[in-house]
Design a protein that fits this description.
Structural class: alpha+beta
Strand content: 15-25%
Shape: globular
Helix content: 40-55%
Number of strands: 7
CATH class: Alpha Beta
Order of helices and strands: HHEHHEHEEEHHEEH
Number of helices: 8
Low-confidence stretches: 1-11
Distance between the termini: 62 Å
CATH architecture: Alpha-Beta Complex
Largest sheet: 5 strands, mixed
Mean pLDDT: 90
Radius of gyration: 23 Å
């Protein structure tokens, strides 16, 4: 290709764009296969992934079974699948290192009802049995990381308190170059009590908050009418 460009340049031809024809059929076939529906989490119980959203409206809708199912776009499905493959790779690392204790460990709290799963438990050289919260992140976000993102720290904080571990780690892998960062999170009783108070407050609400206080992608924005 470089040789062709050089020849054309000598002939005085400028601004030539060479591009291959797109295989639209293949792309459309894959996207159609991956298109699905994203159902909200089970109602009547709080989930760490739900509570990590600062939007009380979203948490209320999910807890009360009022959140609607939404289309699962093909690119989002691919993101989820990459996350699953990341978990499989990290599980193999921990197995080969001889430090894996368990994966997808269920934890729950009774009042209020909170249910979740710890990504990994490992045998840490300093702290013994330690929970690991695994996340992937793009280069832009990875570069800015100096501590866990607040929503990830909150998820791990819930696991630490529900399972009574003193310390855990949020492990990040950069999606673009596979570099990693890992940050300790210590169990914080005050933060846990604040989470429980928020749950109690949401349970006491007779109707959903009117305004979304989450990010632009918060799913509660798609709920217009509530029966």
């Amino acid at each position: 290709m470089a040789g062709i460009k050089q020849i054309r340049k000598k002939q005085g031809v400028k601004n030539i764009v060479i591009s291959a024809k797109s295989d639209e059929w293949l792309m459309e076939t894959i996207d159609e296969y991956l298109t699905g529906v994203m159902h909200p989490p089970r109602s009547g119980v709080f989930h760490p992934s739900t509570l990590s959203n600062p939007c009380d409206r979203s948490v209320w809708l999910i807890y009360h079974g009022k959140m609607i199912a939404t289309p699962l776009e093909p690119h989002v499905q691919r993101i989820f699948q990459n996350g699953n493959f990341l978990e499989q790779r990290v599980e193999k690392w921990f197995q080969n290192l001889g430090i894996l204790v368990g994966r997808e460990i269920p934890v729950r709290f009774d009042v209020p009802a909170i249910s979740g799963r710890i990504d990994f438990l490992i045998k840490h050289s300093t702290y013994g049995i330690t929970p690991i919260e695994l996340k992937s992140i793009n280069t832009s976000g990875f570069t800015k990381l100096r501590s866990p993102k607040p929503e990830h720290e909150m998820q791990l904080q819930m696991y630490l308190n529900m399972a009574r571990y003193d310390i855990g780690t949020v492990l990040y892998e950069n999606k673009n170059d596979q570099k990693i960062k890992a940050f300790f999170v210590e169990r914080d009783e005050k933060e846990w009590q604040a989470i429980l108070s928020r749950c109690a407050n949401i349970q006491s609400m007779t109707e959903a908050p009117k305004q979304c206080t989450g990010a632009y992608w918060c799913s509660c924005r798609k709920v217009k009418d509530i029966e």
